[in-house]
Each structure stands twice: as structure tokens, then as C-alpha cells.
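Submission sheet (multi-component)
Chains listed below:
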Amino acid sequence: MSMETHTQFPQDSDERGGDAREPVPVDHGCVQLLDPDGVRQEDALYDLFVADLGHTELLALYEDMVVTRRIDTEATALQRQGEIGLWPPSLGQEAAQVGSARVLRRGDFVFTSYREQAVAYCRGVELDQLMAMWRGTALSGWDPFAVGMATPAVIIGAQTLHATGYAMGCQRDGSDAVAVAYFGDGATSQGDVNEALVLAASFQAPVVFFCQNNQYAISEPVGLQAQRPIADRAPGFGVPSMRVDGNDVLAVTAAMRIAVDRARTGGGPTFIEAVTYRMGPHTTSDDPTRYRDESEVASWRAKDPITRLERLLESEGVLDETARAHVASVADAAAARVRAGCLALPAPDPLSLFDEVYATAHPGLERQREEYRSYLAMFEGGAR
Amino acid sequence: MSMETHTQFPQDSDERGGDAREPVPVDHGCVQLLDPDGVRQEDALYDLFVADLGHTELLALYEDMVVTRRIDTEATALQRQGEIGLWPPSLGQEAAQVGSARVLRRGDFVFTSYREQAVAYCRGVELDQLMAMWRGTALSGWDPFAVGMATPAVIIGAQTLHATGYAMGCQRDGSDAVAVAYFGDGATSQGDVNEALVLAASFQAPVVFFCQNNQYAISEPVGLQAQRPIADRAPGFGVPSMRVDGNDVLAVTAAMRIAVDRARTGGGPTFIEAVTYRMGPHTTSDDPTRYRDESEVASWRAKDPITRLERLLESEGVLDETARAHVASVADAAAARVRAGCLALPAPDPLSLFDEVYATAHPGLERQREEYRSYLAMFEGGAR
Amino acid sequence: MTTLTLSKAINTGLHHALAEDDRVLLLGEDIGRLGGVFRVTDGLQAEFGADRVVDMPLAESAIIGAAIGLAFRGFRPVCEIQFDGFIYPGFDQIVAQLAKLHYRTKGAVRMPVTIRVPYGGGIGAVEHHSESPEAYFAHTAGLRVVTCSDPQDAHTMIRQAIACDDPVLFFEPKRRYWTKGEVLDDLPADPLAFTRARTVRAGTDATLVAYGPLVQTALEAAEAAADEGVDLEVIDLRSLAPLDVDAVAASVEKTGRLVITHEAQRSGGVGAELAASITERCFDLLEEAPVRVTGFDTPYPASALEDHFLPDLDRILDGVDRALGRRSSASAVGGADARSTTGGEGRR
Amino acid sequence: MTTLTLSKAINTGLHHALAEDDRVLLLGEDIGRLGGVFRVTDGLQAEFGADRVVDMPLAESAIIGAAIGLAFRGFRPVCEIQFDGFIYPGFDQIVAQLAKLHYRTKGAVRMPVTIRVPYGGGIGAVEHHSESPEAYFAHTAGLRVVTCSDPQDAHTMIRQAIACDDPVLFFEPKRRYWTKGEVLDDLPADPLAFTRARTVRAGTDATLVAYGPLVQTALEAAEAAADEGVDLEVIDLRSLAPLDVDAVAASVEKTGRLVITHEAQRSGGVGAELAASITERCFDLLEEAPVRVTGFDTPYPASALEDHFLPDLDRILDGVDRALGRRSSASAVGGADARSTTGGEGRR
Ligand SMILES: Cc1ncc(C[n+]2csc(CCOP(=O)(O)OP(=O)(O)O)c2C)c(N)n1
Ligand SMILES: Cc1ncc(C[n+]2csc(CCOP(=O)(O)OP(=O)(O)O)c2C)c(N)n1
Ligand SMILES: [Mg+2]
Ligand SMILES: [Mg+2]
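Outcome: structure written.
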């Protein structure tokens, strides 16, 4: 018997929504406190969370954004000059990264992908250490425990599970520390990211999922990964979410404070989608002209996160010559540290190849080290 | 500078929902057309999709459910008697499986897990072939192309991607065939299942995700996997969903028809959560008394999918002695086929171990086969 | 000293680990109320609470990934993978994260994560429940891979694995879970004792190397060989990465002959590495090429065929014959390895 | 006959496959408009449309899983994994599904799925971009694993791989993508030609086996050795599963000496299997133990160290010295393998 039917079903059903075919506008349901012209937008809820930010705090955020952009420019130059192999610019994502990272305490712990250079800066990563991975003198540059930030995860999405596990550890320690997972729009397609949402919801882990939707995963537009605003995905897992203008440092700060406070006080995980744009190439190896138009880039240039804060500060008369000069000098110093630190990174000792594969003794590897030591010895004063 | 704050955030925010801590009632938002007492419940939308089901059709569904339960009982007995190694009962899930499977056409293709014995029956799998996997005479029993059903996927969730890929193939063929993925509540935690939702939404693939939420993944209650009704998850991916009483064969039929019609007519994927209960153990190896109370089982026994259809048919005067006798004889015959077919399954030839690992020539394996052939030859007339 | 099944010996080992170090956590599917599908964690959640014996969502990548995060936070997670064949969804987290994090961070991060995996065949199970995936992990730098073969080792080794600061894949021979044996509580002084091979039978004529479920089979084979006057030395590898090549080489120096047996597929299995390593180390001392008696290069078959897939006493003895240059099944097969047809008469 | 880079030779191979069989589809990340990060699929979406050259969501398991479903429907999907190190999230779908489906269904289902993987090091990349994961797949029954080393083979082999009814892991030596060579269009008559080893240089003194990126290095080493009067036979394996043991054995029968080189970690690498197989087949003919010159048992290191990790001309020649029983680096290390110190003078 066949139960098949050809009854026409009604267009408007009481089913749970999700018509994938209507394109989602980029700013759909986005919280914005500061518009591209630098004008403050009111929001009854979110304003509460930035009400205490005075000129000093705003200037500090401005400084961080300018400095991290300057670091980005310098690193890109270093790559063009052949001093580093690769660089994934954070250009355009400064508000998302600085605004969120600055909400955290020293004791919190951050797990990122490879593009979170501004987050690293805010966590206190030394600038030479930041460069080590890209210069290839080390797989990663810093001690995660010194700064409360794991070294970058290159495998897309893997770090979201680490953050959730870390958060489960915080719960068990009775600590109010919070874990944060940074990842991109593309990452949301990976199984791991979705498993992390399940896990975080199940254990109400104090973790913040911070997704920078920069519209692209290399050449793939976000529309290939998500048919709904990304923030819409989390509630179905039992993780409340927010969608904010990721180029608006105030909105990002407010959302992050809501999420972090919730996690700290036992309220469980939160998902934040920061809608932003990757102004530069995916990495210095990428040629974005193959997949996007200059007009699109231009439309986002008008929404630049630094410009709008600059306009606000200007309109409030805060950004005088002294302030500008100070920020410029901090940025110059950072750029100089990036360059000098990068160039001064020591070449690793050949036999360090065998170090720290294991924390405990490993005869097989010791043997290989000795073999290689004696191999190298053959060349002493010789050809190699 | 720290952007940390201790501002108390309001209880009622405009954030997207998802408070994970309020427990979800099992029947939250569930579509029901036939209540446990066999009384028809009205539903303006879903009724449309079962309006054409007359007594003949209902009796046929009833027969399928009774027969598949009987198959299940017989197989369980065979396991107790040591004739098969393992059996995962579908007991209690007959409405979900029969109701959904009977909506499909021959040309549709079904990808299931290991518990879909009633689905297999409806697809036309021979009963001896159904038993082969559990008797261990073969890894799986049937030719998928003969019945439009892949052999069971034991790795939880893997088959949901196969179904989605198959559906992408249907699109490319310009066919109106539909793919269906069956999986459990536990499976929804696996990365693969979530990736399948992403994929299906991205390509608007003609696939139906049919989740039997039978409340348990072995010993783990669904609350460990999902903090919201499972059906709530799909819309965030851009996949519309329905939540139906999975013990109500009418509701299941209606929902499946909606989903299948949509897929067939280019409307893309749909997710159905059929809320049901695993009345038996996870498998014959399982001891459910370790993790659930008899009272819980009893409460579900009162919602038995067969009983309620029986009551409806009785109240409509359809289930007379002849009808009952007919159904009983079909069930008896099926049970006899299960038993006889199972016991008659031929022991595989030892050297078939090496068959069909590859579709093309493989010298290494040929060599191993020859070695083993000569090894066995040593025993001819001998010890082994 | 108590008599315990291998499964209970692991259970008591886990109990010790949980009791001695409150940073030890167990993570897995169905390990709590149910006590695991093999009951290896039976009673532990009741005693140590659901925060330390944690039923996890059904997602292996999440189990390993969470363990990594917990290790970042200073915990020593012990993950249970329900069956060998279900480890692959967690493969990326194991080989690309867990194995590499210590190296990636130049030693700043330690990953004392133990992954328990019931493995191997011979229990008449359906697909994916009888696999021997150890070679994948043995090929992965940064991991330790060990397996036990009797209750005492099971108990000691799981405790040492958990105490080890490196990630350890701990393979449990599931068909030996019900093997009984005496178990002592005290740990060896050497914290890496669990990584050293052990001579379970001394002998002079050939070295027979096994691990996990086949150690018992190897011992039975050695008894059968002894009846025919062949004196086998049997070594239980215990550690598959690193291999204790020194121990095997020392034995082969004595015997000149090597047979290696494992259930896993032959190509690229642990036997290949051991054969290659021993050939490198003992080439001049070897009387015959090392012999591998292993699962075939097919997927693990339906249970009706598993006795043909799995090395058993007879196939091991056939391999011993080959290593001794005696008549064996290989004699009948053409090609270069048929060369040793001149050996003594086969036993059959 | 045209001169093409290896990358372009694959591109034209894919073009042929797409043009000749409309069931062929390409699936991958960034393979459409971008043409892949290595431009191997450049222009193909523009020509064959987005339905046949499909940009997939960022999820490797989904890419392989969808390919399996498409194969069920009669397609021949060709998946691109962007870099070697990103294959692991798809590992379960490859080893537990793709590899087993033909066997699981007693041949009813065929899985003509090709998985293209740019692999290997030497390009100064960050972590996960330089790996050689071939041994994981070579150990997996049901898969074929092949790799090419020059433009002609790249072109021919990708076409034959796609035409093959078995799942094929097709490893592309990414640091050789820009190597140029003559490419002929016609396919060999034997559809399994792509699985047979190829002697790329005839010689008499020792057999040097390489594959993928190291074939060129091996040839350079052979030239250098020739300058010193050592005549090496160089074999390009092409197929890593199954191994063409016959071809290597035939060479070793002639030379009595074997050196195997690969970038992957040594333990449990393809070299272990080949060494073990050749020792089994040619024990009496081997003058020395087979020598492996491979990556070390560390994770792939930071790029500043990769020249030390990767076998190069000098390390291969050192291995050749060892295989010839001449003075080599091994001479200096203690232990049993120091035994061959009596050989001729080293070249340095
Ligand atoms: C598992 C895995 N697959 C593929 C890649 C290659 N890859 C590197 S970055 C990238 C795009 C990531 O996009 P998104 O998550 O949006 O982050 P974004 O680069 O935009 O910051 C891809 C595909 C990878 N690193 N890991
Ligand atoms: C990847 C994987 N992990 C673990 C298992 C072991 N296992 C078999 S069934 C099962 C529970 C599945 O629960 P659910 O998806 O709800 O399906 P149900 O058994 O209830 O039908 C588990 C954990 C498996 N088969 N595959
Ligand atoms: Mg992005
Ligand atoms: Mg279930």
C-alpha cells in the first residue's frame, strides 16, 4: 500500500519556520549602538551594558583598534618583503576582536583560530611571539598560560570543543573564569562547532561562542554555509544568541559583557554573531578579486569600525591632537616591535626538532635524535 | 583597560530564546491526530494530509504495525535462543517507522540506522535478508538497489550525509525521487548530522530527516543530547521542521507526506521529529533496568501506537474477526519466515572472506587469498 | 592480592586513579548509570559523582575535544570510546590536536589524556565492533599506544597511563574482559613500566611477539609447540608506540627467528613496523625473514567468518613453521617466499 | 603532446574526466570560482557549471559523506581536500563508510569516489599544511592509495583513478605542482596501469624506492651517486595500496639492496610495510637490511626546521651508503645496526 499523496500543501503552515530561499540581509536583526557615521543609536537593553564607558575607555578601545590595524599592516608588509611566509589579515575586524577581548579578565581563557591577531594583542601576547608562527620559527609563539589564550587552531572549528571542555573544567573548579571560542562563519559548517553547542548546552558550560561572520570562508560566501542568520542556529541547541554589528565596538562590547556575565554567574553558554567583513584577502596568498567585486569591498569600507569610532570621538571633542599623537606613537612602537621582533626571532636549533614531542621519555625518538645528531656531525666543517 | 562589567543584566532580554534550564515536556508542541485512546484529534493543517485515508488504508497500516511487531518478537526470541547474536528491537516505534516508510515510492531511497526493521519491511526487504546481519552470516543482508534502502549504518549519524548526497544526485538527475535519513535522538549530537543539515539547506536537497526521538541513546536520556525539542534545531539551519507524536501513525503519515511532497516538488529538505519511546532494551544485550524505571515504561505503554489504532478501527467497526484473523495470519507467516529464513541462512564460504573488498583486481589480496587457500588445504581431511 | 576479571581490574584501576587524584575525570557514552556497555566503569559514578564520571553527548569528537580543553585546565581526563570502530569521528581531535599540542606549544601545554578503547574481534559482533585500529595511532607522533593482556597488567597499566603526562591510547582486549587473574595493587617504581615489553614465556627456538588479545593465544601456541619440541619465547609488547625494539631484539639475538601476530590488517600494521625495525637491528642474526600472522587485508568480516580472519593457534603455529624454515602453508604458494620448502616436516 | 605543470596536468585530466562522463562531479572547498587554492580546478566550474564543480560547505565529513551518497546514485564524485592536514575530520566517512561499502553489501554498491589530497612538505607552510597521511589509508582495507610524481603521471593517473570503480585516495605532491613536463593525452590500455610501480631509472647496485614528491629527489640522488660510481635503480611506487611488491622484488633480486624514502613519519609508514614485504619475499637475496630514509617520528615541524625533517639528497645518499654497507651516519650510533662499519669509505 502506498501512503503517498499529491495533496497540495498550504503555503502558510504552522510549521517551524526556515524558508531557506529568501536571502538574509546582512544586517538582519543586528544590534547597532554606533552607526557608520559615528552616531550613537539607542537600544534600551544593550545601552545598559556600555553606559559606564566614558571617554577614557572609548579612547582606549580606539587605541587598540588603531594599533592592531597597524600591526596588521606591518605584518602584511613583512610578508610582501619575504620575511614571513603568510599572514591572515584581521583588517576590518578590529571592533569585533578588540571589543570582545577587552571584556575578559586575565583569568579567562580564549581559544581562537588563526585570524585573531587583535585578540592576541589584547590578551598580552608579545608581538615577536605573535610573529613566530608566521615566520615559521615555531609552530606557535607563546605560552598559553602566560596570557590566557591558547595558540591558534588551524583546523577549522576544533578549538570550540577545547573551549567548551575548558569551561567544564572551570565549573568543576568552582571558578568564575570563562572560556571563549573565536571562530568564523565558515567554521559553523564543521561538525565540531555544532558538537560544541550541544556539549555546552548539555552542561551549561561557561563558554562564549564568538563567531566573526566576515562574510567569507576564503572564496565561499557565507550564504553557502548558512541559510539563516548564523545567530539563529544556537537557540535550537539551547544556547541563547545575539547578532550584533561587528564593526560597532560598542555593540560588540555590550553583547560580550552580557554573555560573559552570564557565563560567570552560572547562566551557561551564549552565542554571539558579530557581523563584520574581511577587508583584506583571506591570507596574503589569496587573490580576492577572483571571487568578489570591488564595489562590495567599497560598501564595507564605508562601515569601517575605526572610522566610526573616530567620528564619535571627534564629535565629542575627545580626539584632539595630543590624543591622536599618542595613539600614533603607540601604533608606531607596536609596528616597530613587530618588525624588529620578527626579524630577531632566533632560528631554532636543528635538534630541537625532536624536543617536546613527548613529556616523558621516548626511546625510539631518542634514537632518531642520536642518529640525526651523528648524521649532522658528518658534515661538520663540510658540505651542508 | 578592562571592559569587564558587573552590571546586572535583565531577565527578559530581546535576545533570541533558548533558556536551557526549563525542562522540555515530552509532548511539547507535538502534532497529534490520534490520541492514546484511539480518538481522532482535529488539526486543520495536518488533517488535510490524511483525509484520503479510508478504512482499507488504515487497516493496511495496522497490519504493517502488527506484523513488524511480530517480526520483532520473533527475532528477539531467536536471539534468546542463541540463533542470532544481537537484535535491536523496534518495539514501540512501529507507528513512526511504518507511518513514514509507507509514504515513500519505490524510486525513493532510504538511509537508516540499525533499528529500522519496520522500515526495512515496508521497503520490501526479504525477512531472511533482514536477519543475515544479526545472525552474522553477512555484514548486511540485501541489495540496496533492489529495495531502495541502503543497508544499516552502525556508525551513528553517518547515513544522514549519504542521504543528503543522494538527494543532491536526484536534483542533478532532474528526478523527483526523494532521499530519507532515519536516525535517533542520540544521533543529533554527532557532527555528521549537523553537517547534513547545513548541506541540505545549502543545496535545498530533496531529503527528509526523520528523527525517531525514542527518549534514549542506550542509557542516556534525550535531555543529555538536546536542551530544546529536537525539532527546534533544524530551522536555525534553514530546514523547516515538524514535531509529531511518533506513536500516532496518522500524524506521522501527515508530516511525512508534507515533507516528501515538499522535497519532490523542489521545496527542499524537511526535518521531522517523531516523539516515541523505545519500549524494549537498546538491544538484546542491554539491561534497561539499570537506567530507567518501570513506571516510565508503563506510562509509555499506555501510549502504544498499535493499541490506539486498534481502538480507532474498533470504534469504527472495521476490525472484525475476519480482519483480525487476516492480520494474525500475515503476522504468523512473517514470523515463520523470519525463523525459517534465519535458520536457513547459508554459512558463508571461508574464502568469500576475500571477495568484493575491491571491485577491481588487487594482487596483494589475491596473494593472501591464495596463501589462505593453501593453508586451509593443509587441513583437508585433518584437524580443523 | 585478589582474583579479578580483566574488566574488573581496569575498574579498580580507574577507582584508584579517581580516588588518588581529584583531577582525574572519566568521560564517555553510557559510562555513568549504566557503567559502560562492558561495565568497566560500573559503580564509579555512584561513588565519585556525575561531575567526575561524566556521561557525554553521543559525539566522539566532542568527547576528545572536551578532554583536551579539560587538560588545558589541568585535569587528567580518561575518555572511553564505546567500541573500536567508533573512534574515527574523534580522529581529527586525536591526531591533529591531542597528539600535537605539547609539541605545538614547545612543551607549555601537557595533554595527560587517556583514551580507553575496547578493541579486537572474536566476540561474534556486528560491523564496527571488532576492529583493531591501533596502527593508525602508532603511526601518529605525539601519542603513546599501549594494550594489556591480563588482569594484572590491565590494572597497573591503566593507572600508569592515567598518571603519564602524555596522551595515551589504551586498547583493551574486549574478548579477554572476562579472563581472570591475580591482581596486586602496588605500582612498579618505574612510571613507564607500562611501556616496556614483557617476556611472558622464555624460550630459545624462535621469538613469538603478540599483544592484547593474542598474547593468550600465543601462549597456547607455545604450549602446543613445546609438545612438538619447539621452544618459543613469547613476548607481550604492551606498548605499540613506542615499540620496545630493544626487548624484541634481545630475544631475536638469542633465537634468530621472529613471528609477530596481531588481529589488525597486515598491510601497514604494527607487525610491519616491528619486522622492519628488527630486520634493521638484527639483520645478520636472523635465520629467516620475520613472519607476520595477522588479520587479512579485508575489512573485518561478518562474524560467521571471523574465525578465518583472526589469527588462531594453528595459524600462529603455521607462522612458526615458516620462521623455522619448516614446511608451512607458504611452501605451497608460488613466488620468492616459497623458497623455504626444505625445512622439517610439518606437524600435520 | 604539450608541456604542462603538474598542477595543470591534473587540471586537464579533470577536464577530460568531466567531458567524457557526465556522472563525474567535483566537490570541494573553494574549487569553483577560485579554482582551488592551488588552482588545480581552475576554469572547470566556468566550463561545466556549478552543478558539476561544486563548492561545498566547509566540512570535510560532509564532502566525503555526500560523495558516498552521490555514488549510491550512480555518480563518480571527485573530492578535493584542501590540504593534507584537513582530511582527518572526514576520516570516519573514509575508513568506516567509503572503504567498506562495497564489502558490506557483497559488491552490490560501488564506490567510484576519488579523493584528491595535495600533500607533503617543503613549501614553508604553517602547521597542518605539510603532512603525509598516506599510511593511514594504506592500512585501510577497501581503499586504493596512489600518488603521482610528474605531469604525465599526474594526468594519466587522475583519469584512471576517476575511472576506477574503487575508492581512490589520490595524493598530489604539492611542492611539485609547478614542475613542468611533457604530457600525452592517450590513456594506457590497462585501466590499472596507475597502480603499477614504474622504474624511472635502471641501475644495478641498489634499489631506491620513492613516491610522490621524493621521486625527483631520488633521481637527483641517483645522479649524484652515479658520479661516485654507484648505479642506483630508482622506482616510483605510484601505488601505496596495494604496493607493487612484485616490481620492487624484481629489482631487489637484481641489486640485493633496498632503500625506501618517504616524507611521512617513519614508524608505521609505507616504508615499514615495503621493507617487511620485501624482506619476506627476498630474504635470501638481500645483502643488507632494507634502509628507510623518512621523516622523523615527530609532528611535522615549524617550517624553519622542515629541511631537517624532510629526506633530501644527502640523507638519501647516506641511506644508500648504509644499504651498501659503507660508512654512514648509522655507523656512529651504537647498537646492533652499527654493525656495518666495515663498508667502503663514505663520500664525505
Ligand atoms: C578542517 C579544515 N578544513 C579546511 C581548512 C582550510 N581553510 C583555512 S581557513 C578556511 C576558511 C575559514 O573561514 P571562516 O571560518 O569564515 O574564517 P575566516 O578565514 O573568514 O576568518 C579554510 C577553508 C582548514 N584550515 N581546516
Ligand atoms: C559513532 C558511534 N558512537 C557510538 C556508537 C554506539 N552506539 C550504538 S547505538 C547508540 C545509541 C544511539 O542512540 P539513538 O541515536 O537515540 O538511536 P536509538 O538506539 O535510540 O535508536 C550508541 C551510543 C555507535 N554505534 N556509533
Ligand atoms: Mg569567514
Ligand atoms: Mg534514541
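Remark: The longest helix of chain B spans residues 55-80.
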